[in-house]
Amino acid sequence: MKKKETYNIAIIGATGVVGREMIEILEERQFPVNELRLLASEKSVGQKISFKGKSLTVGLAEEKSFEGMDMVMGDTPTEVSKMFAPMVKKAGAVFIDCSSAFRADPKIPLVVPEVNGEAALAHDGIVAGPNCSAIPVAVAAKPIHKKYGIKRMVVSTYQSASGAGKGGMDELAAQTVALLNSKEIPLKVFAHRLAFNVIPQIDAFLPNGDTKEEDKIMKELRKLLNAPELALACTAVRVPVMCGHSATVNIELEKKASAQEISLLLEKAPGIVIRDDMAKKQYPMPMDIAGTDEVYVGRIREDHSIPNGINLWVCADNLRKGASLNAIQIAEYLIKNPS
Amino acid sequence: MKKKETYNIAIIGATGVVGREMIEILEERQFPVNELRLLASEKSVGQKISFKGKSLTVGLAEEKSFEGMDMVMGDTPTEVSKMFAPMVKKAGAVFIDCSSAFRADPKIPLVVPEVNGEAALAHDGIVAGPNCSAIPVAVAAKPIHKKYGIKRMVVSTYQSASGAGKGGMDELAAQTVALLNSKEIPLKVFAHRLAFNVIPQIDAFLPNGDTKEEDKIMKELRKLLNAPELALACTAVRVPVMCGHSATVNIELEKKASAQEISLLLEKAPGIVIRDDMAKKQYPMPMDIAGTDEVYVGRIREDHSIPNGINLWVCADNLRKGASLNAIQIAEYLIKNPS
Questions:
Q1: Closest Cα in chain A to B307
Q2: Residue B333, helix vs strand vs coil
Q3: Which chain A residue has its CA at the smallest distance from B301's CA?
Q4: N or C: which end of chain A has fewer CB within 10 A?
Q5: pLDDT tens digits for B269-284?
Q6: What domains appear along chain A, each with residue ranges and CATH number?
Q7: Nearest-neighbour CA in chain B from A88: distance (Å)
Q8: Is A234 considered catalytic here?
């Protein structure tokens, strides 16, 4: 990214739940925006969204929409990202894509700025943002891996409805109301009822029995931590929470560390807040962290079932740190390190 | 237990959510009951509960209530169980206690009939039923441990509100309604809001950072599997589900087993139903298994992050198999194996 005073930014999927968060966060963080161009598919064209006191009109995302843009961000379906990526590159803009379209491509950097920001600088027009459950685990694991070496992690997730977008949140709300009123349960976004239930499947199944979500979390963690052989097991579960993904993370370290050493290390690490006070019953919970920017870590305990074991409980706002905020932090990293 | 045609049974805490399930299950399973005596604390005395078409009146639980009884069952608070245990013994009855009062006592058998039924026969007047999250994991782990040897398990739970009794379910319902109507959230049973949230704390904290719940699950699994040195890590989490506890179970085996071998083994094991059809999106979920008797296992996958790794997803009705049904199955085991 060349150095400029302000930048022209386009958001595709601007009316989606992550798109809207991006617009808010650009304003909140006083991102140096010159022009903000809001783009979406035909059905959302003409919607008005406010930005810095002005009402912006959503336009159609198409080839010519990217002309003159410095950066284009979005969290659109994979096939939409794949369609627009060459158009964004052709227009000379950098595409910061939250979808899974390019994450596994070894030529495309997969970036969480606190974890591997420098990787973003090697982009060739596309930077991918990781899966919303991989991000918080990577932020918590990075300083631990750097100092003590991680041999293996076992991750179980507690992922909220908003991981499936606005439709997921609406469906959880509608199901809850329907259930309380003994009405028929709407089922469109989720394969099963989510209200007052947990669903041990996110995304489709792969032949080996893992879901694509579990596969993405494991592969992306390895790429983010630059540890291609890292031993990982993962089970991804949807829980009836509106916003905020949580995970239990059981870690086997190369070198011994006490719970206190891990706690002190993470306290100083970028993008992490420790919430871990047993006496006050304080630990990260989705209800407290929705709308925040950091990755919250608590329940830091030694696991004596292996020589160097540590348990963590990790929680983050999946719409912000898990997608929109992370994309904007990538943009900030690019403009702070001009080419 | 001496052989008889029918038995006199008392239930303490008969008006509680587990007590009521016990009464229903005795009827459902045509347990050979002569007299059924329903007992509770003063505030519930006089309540009427139907059993086999008759209306029974709840009496006061006190020393003399146990006279003439063959077996006394209950899921009362620990201190209540401790108070009544000597009175039940003095009356010559066997106390089948679902509380945690006696579970850790090496002289008192801790029993899940499918796992270690024979241990119940060595009782000296008390048989303890395990924690509602330990039971399903033990039922699934037992045949695996017997055939392949379990070196280590990492367990993360997804425990429902009913694990905290009727008050827990009422609070989750009231919180949900309050939240949907923007009213004040009632907080009495749980330390934090549970509706649309997850709480990574069940029971009080121990100095080492584990909760008592996590400690109980690990210690009871070791006792049930007769594996005092079994390596275990556990994180217990409350989720906004009314009934049905779930858990991810990551297992390191001594001997190699394929996912298919584990599946075939568990299919034939007592008390287990396999629900594991990726094409049909079938796996155990609380909404499907509430009201059932078995332990449901699905998401059976090999975990290649260790030499002999297996992942399971386990789900059971915590009120039935996790407490009431298990107690009655212990009673059935005792009468089928008379002394």
A1: A231
A2: helix
A3: A209
A4: C
A5: 999 999 999 999 999 9
A6: 7-131+323-336 (3.40.50.720), 134-317 (3.30.360.10)
A7: 37
A8: no
Note the helical H segments in chain A: 17-28, 78-90, 113-116, 134-148, 165-180, 212-224, 259-268, 286-289, 325-336
Of A180, A196, A209, the CB nearest to B241: A196
CA dist A247 and B52 (Å) reads: 46
Specify the amino acid at residue B56: L
Mean pLDDT of the residues in chain B? 97
Helix (H) or strand (E) holding B153: strand B150-158
Rg of chain B in Å (alpha carbons): 20
Residue with tokens 């950097």: A109
| Residue from A248, A278, A312, A314 whose CB has the most chain B CBs within 10 Å, to mutate | A248
The model's pLDDT over A291-325, given as tens digits with 9 standing for 90+, comes to 999 999 999 999 999 999 999 999 999 999 999 99
Q: Tell me the residue length of chain A.
A: 339
The set of long-range contacts for A53-60, using a CB threshold of 8 Å and a minimum separation of 24, is A58/A14, A58/A15
Residue pair A306/B152 in contact by the 8 Å Cβ criterion: yes
- Residue B13 CA to residue B270 CA, distance in Å, equals 29
Contacts of A31 (CB under 8 A, 6+ apart): A7, A9, A25, A328, A331, A332
List the single best residue of A156, A193, A194 to mutate versus B (max B Cβ within 10 A).
A156
- State the burial class of residue B293 (Cβ atoms within 10 Å of its Cβ: 0-12, 13-18, 19+): middle
What pLDDT digit, counting tens, does each position of A135-194 carry? Answer: 999 999 999 999 999 999 999 999 999 999 999 999 999 999 999 999 999 999 999 999
SS3 content of chain A, % helix, strand, coil (to 5): 35, 25, 40
Residue A339's pLDDT band, with cuts at 50, 70 and 90, is: confident
Q: Among the options A98, A132, A234, A315, which is catalytic?
A: A132
Q: Please check whether residue B302 is in contact with residue B328, taking contact to mean a CB–CB distance below 8 angstroms.
A: no
Q: What is the pLDDT of residues B240-278, one digit of tens each?
A: 999 999 999 999 999 999 999 999 999 999 999 999 999
C-beta atoms of A208 and B250 within 8 A: no
Per the listing, tokens 């491509």 go with A105
Answer yes or no: is pLDDT of A289 > 90.
yes
Residue type, A87: M
Quick check: B198 and A152 CB within 8 A? no
Q: Is B247 helix (H, G, I), strand (E, B) or coil?
A: strand
The pair of structure tokens assigned to A312 is 């963590």
Number of Cβ atoms within 10 Å of the Cβ of B287: 20
Distances (CA, A) of A26 to A7, A9, A10, A135, A328: 12, 10, 11, 20, 7
The yes/no answer to whether this complex scores an ipTM above 0.90 is: yes
- Cβ of A200 within 8 Å of Cβ of B283? The answer is yes
Sign of CA dihedral A163, B175, A175, B285: positive
Residues B303-339: b if buried by 16+ CB within 10 A, e if exposed? bebbebbbbbbbbbbbbbbbbbbbbbbbbebbbeeee
- If we measure between CA atoms, which residue out of B300, B142, B122, B324 comes closest to residue B220? B142
Distance between CA atoms of residues A11 and A36, nearest Å: 8
**What's at B259, amino acid-wise?**
A
pLDDT at residue number A147: 98
Q: Which of the residues B98, B132, B234, B315 is marked catalytic?
A: B132
Instruction: Examine the residue annotation and report whether B245 is marked as an active-site residue of this protein.
Output: yes
